[in-house]
Amino acid sequence: MSKKKRRRKNRPQSAGGQRSRSAGNPVPAPGTRSRTAAGRSDPAPSTSQLTAPGAGAAARDDGSSSTADAQIQVIVGLITTGALDLHLGTVQAAISKRHQDRRRDASHQAAAELRIGDRVCLTEHIRPMYMRGATGTLTGWAQQNAIVHLDQPTGRFPGGEIRCPPLGLRRLEASA
Length: 176
Hints:
alpha+beta
């Protein structure tokens, strides 16, 4: 057994099976509640302060984000205290799904603004990095990717034709 493993094995553990970070501040096991001095368990924080999804949209429309800020603080507090430990997978899946939907919508919007024959520039979101700022002409579509014929073929694209996502392109203004 290596020294590292022996050291880990010999560390003291708290009653919940989790190792404590310091002797004075033990880390409670996930899903457990803290105990008061009298031995009673504190109730889990309430989620009643959260509002329905439509109510948050109304707050954003008014220009006031105080409701959304309060909701974020409640959610972060619940996650930090461990009250949502049993639901972290669900929360993570919902956040990932929403992020994916927003990126897809942004990509569709960017694609809708591009037309075959448009002059485009590759943005800072493109890799390899030496392609950033390269210009070319949009010549077609391959599923969700745009086919761009570069003005100056470079690097591993000696034919000058590349495929890239619409979010990686910026349309150049036509010069008169």
